[in-house]
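Bug #77: duplicate submission created two jobs. Keeping one. Sequence:
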Amino acid sequence: MDFVKQFSFPFSVGVVLSRQVDHLRSVEAFVERVIIEKECCKGCELCIRACPRSVLVMSDDFNKSGYHYSVFKNKEDCNSCTFCAVICPDVCIEVYR
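Kept job's structure:
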């Protein structure tokens, strides 16, 4: 406790942790490595082609815009390379490590 009193931090540790938790969209980020916003996806399949481990596939379902959307499958094979998120033109994909 004396250490904390001795040095003044520009921020509170609790504030930093709450910001990190607020940054996560949902609890899914702790479970899933890749989160795809299905309503944003237009089904261009660029993410599927960019994935070196083939963990993304097209869904058989449609989103509200009438497009097939990408789905994260084979979760244990994903290495969080972020290729899918980088190539997505609509920024529909978030990758967590």
